[in-house]
Amino acid sequence: MQIYQPHPWPLTVEEAITIQEELRHQVITQDQFTQPVQYVAGVDMGFEADGTISRAAVAVLSFPDLQVIETNLAYRPTSFPYIPGFLSFREIPAVLDALEKIQTKPDIILCDGQGIAHPRRLGIASHLGVLLNIPTIGVAKSLLIGKHEELADTKGSWQPLIHRGEIIGAVLRTRVGVKPVYVSSGHKISLSTAIDYVLRCTPKYRLPETTRVADKLASNR
DNA sequence: GCGACAG
DNA sequence: ATCTTGTCGC
Predict the structure, then answer these.
(1) How long is the CA A18 to C1' B3 vector, in angstroms?
(2) Cβ-based burial of A149 (10 A; exposed 0-12, middle 13-18, buried ≥19)
(3) Which of A60, A68, A62, A20 is nearest to A43 (CA)?
(4) What's the pTM?
(5) CATH superfamily of the domain spanning A13-144+185-219
(6) How do residues A104-130 score in pLDDT, each as one tens digit?
(7) Could you say which residues bind Mg(2+) here (predicted)?
(8) CA-to-CA distance for A156 and A109, rounded, in angstroms?
């Protein structure tokens, strides 16, 4: 797919904060689909050579049947360290590389990490969504910020994730007896619609099939 | 100032 | 994320 030249990648946290403060105003947390959802994509990251090399895997699946349509891998030198709150600056460059050769443009991308459930409301899913101008969903395996009530041990049960009096996402049980995932709007999608798609992409395991396929691809080496 | 802290 | 064996349970 066509990747437009993004903003220059920062070298310092200070520069990164400036970019986040700029882009946060472009995030849309309402449904804005141009067409019916036919393809969903997942992204997974891996690192090699002591973390100096980033490896990004993308998997495009059909929706709602979740069959693998296309995959791609990309490598590039790691240019930013892992710092909580700045994950996107470490991972998005390689993700864009991996998406570049994808022929089937996904209608939604499920990201490994937060959407707006972020200190400045620009987690990796929101950041990627704004850069690509595509609907994205944040599906994180653990909490970055926010508080929530306990949730029932039933598939599909969820509780709002609250931060500074705002609902920034949802803690969602995708399977009985497993730890919940943290879902938030990335870009061009509402929280309720995001929850719906995450559940529809999670027929069997805790994590969406999209990220599972990308994960398998990235680790099968 | 003291913790918390996506992957 | 990554380093790693066995082990618990369906």
Answers:
(1) 25
(2) exposed
(3) A60
(4) 0.96
(5) archaeoglobus fulgidus dsm 4304 superfamily (3.30.2170.10)
(6) 999 999 999 999 999 999 999 999 999
(7) 44, 112
(8) 20
Chain A 51-80 residues whose Cβ is under 7 Å from strand C: 55
Amino acid sitting at position A209: E
The tens digit of pLDDT for each residue in A173-184 reads 999 999 999 999
Cβ contacts of residue A165 below 8 Å, gap of 6+?
none
- DSSP letters, A29-80, are -S---SS---EEEEEEEEEEGGGTEEEEEEEEEETTT--EEEEEEEEEE--S
A44 CA – B7 C1', rounded, Å:
10
Give distance CA A101 / C1' C7 (Å): 42
Q: Which nucleotide is nearest to A46 (CA to C1')?
A: C1
Cβ neighbours of residue A85 closer than 8 Å, sequence gap 6 or more: A118, A119, A120, A144
Nucleotide nearest to A117 (CA to C1'): B6
Cβ contact A46 with chain C strand, < 7 A = yes
pLDDT at A114: 98
Which residue's alpha carbon is at the shortest distance from the C1' of C3? A50
Element (H, E) at A99: helix A87-100
The count of residues in chain A is 221
